[in-house]
# Entry
Amino acid sequence: MVVKFISAVVFAACLAFVPTNNLHAAVTPSAKPAATVKKLKFAVFLRHRVNHVLMNLESHGGYHHAVASLGHLFDLAIERAPSHDVAALVDVDYARRLTSQLSRMSDTNRRGQILHLLLKNQELGETLAFLIELHRQPVSSIYSRLYKMHAALGKEILKYPNLTAAICVTLFKPLHRHLNENLVTSPSPNAIFKYYVKYRHQMYFGIKDVPARLLVYVVDDCATIREMKWALARYRGDPIVGRLFFTIKYDYSALQPDAVKRVDRAGYNLPNILKYGGICIDQAYFAAAVGKAIGVPTAIDEGISSVVGHAWVGFLQARANSGWWNFNVGRYSEYQGVIGSVKNPMTRRREPDDFMSISAQLIHTTQSDRWAAIALTDAARRLLFIRKAHLAFDPQPVPANLSAFRRKALMNTSQNELKMLDRATESCRGYADEWRTVALMAHWGMLTLGEKEHWSEKLMRLCGRRYPDFALAVLTPMINSVKDVSQRVRLWNRVFPLFADTRFDLAARIRMMQAAAWEKAKKYNRAGECLLFVINRYTNAGPFVITALEKAAKILARQGHKNRILTLYEQTWLKIKPPPRDMLAFESESSWYQVGEQLKAMLKAQGHRRLARKVANELDSGGVVLRAR
# Structure
């Protein structure tokens, strides 16, 4: 879709002496009679103007002026480009992104060399420019890494633009991971590049055609190159890397006070983790590192529940025309309901894993479709932020002698922003920012109830079954921004059946949000019904039963039914399954133990000492008596 920029030979006569902010001058008619002048297509005009700005920038510098000129062109493209011609919008957006990003570099000599390199190698330039998030990443360090890689590895980096871009945005400085008492550090970026190029044919998904947004979860490895070679020799071709989590024996001796894990004494590396075992973070690290070594994108997921400290592994799977992140295979069943977070390799910040899941859809997309989705989203966000700031959207007029452009000026309204986002989602569904932007519009009160219903239904249709975590994450701000409580609960009820029988954790989360809405509206009976639904139906589905009990107890107390709280806890605790015997090390983190401790305290407080001792005995025995029943 993206057309390469035209060389200086074409249109040099009409561009060479034209100021870059004068859009009309670029199409000055020739000496021929006006009736015989052939009109220039709008898309061709945009590309010539972009090319002129970049050539002028390379020759004379002036980033501030170039950024402003390309910003004006982008606004003009948003307003007047035909809806069917996304390629022209992509070209302008690429140039705008690239110049904005390079303007952050303080080393002007390196900046000039990088600009020259990327203008000659547009595929690498586009890959990197469309990957970088300007305000969330250290742009100067990323492009400095590109400069150093090119100086050391030469033209080889140009053959693998996705790999090069992924390494630059991920390993702009050494990556360190603290795995409890152990610290692991990434190999050098050049060594990582050489490893994946050398063994590219043994990588499960390959390297060259895997989108850079997925490759960042491959190159962020903290195992040594020697360990990676060991893992490749032993596990290559095994895509279900989550199963490796359970090949690591759990080192129960490490749970004793002042104990030192056997793997720590032997030396912390992948072969020793396999030999001596470890705890959950070591199990997750092993599976994730092996996956990266064999070319499978992986991430270490960590529980963010207030009562659970646990780690597991997520990994990419794909077949036919679909891809998905699997966070279940490499995870103890007792923690399936725990909300997890992963470290974004590009920003190095922890983020909920739900937004990550949609990126799996990128595995089967083309570059042109990915760039189109990003450019359309950038255009929608440009309009959105102008409107949010109460500024006028007033692009320069269309120059004379142009054809094939939208005759009616685009109005800056939510409807037009949503149209762009709709086209973005149709072009590429794996780009999370297009959906995030819709959610942001809802959060800012810029969507009508009908628009929220439409986008909720579209999201559930396109993403709900394959990416339920992501779907719920986008739906939450969209539905929770509906002010009328009855309408909000109605929307959640329409969504609920999708999760009710397959994702108990997400279904419980919906009921909890409904309960919170009713409680805020002082409809305590309705809130209590939602909480009891969670307690009764999803007792063993995750740690949210603890929160549901606490909230239900407060409502009962508020309504003058304190006498029912103890019974509620007793009945619920008897329905919760104690942890299996091989999971007794995590007993204190389980819902069974947490609720049991609360029940024991209540019994003591109300003078039921014999029953309190009985509960204490059950907790001490790990529920052996209960299991025997």
Summary: The first helix runs from residue 12 to 15. The CA atoms of residues 146 and 515 lie 51 Å apart. Strands lie at 40-41, 176-179, 182-185, 298-303, 311-319, 322-330, 340-343, 350-352, 402-403.
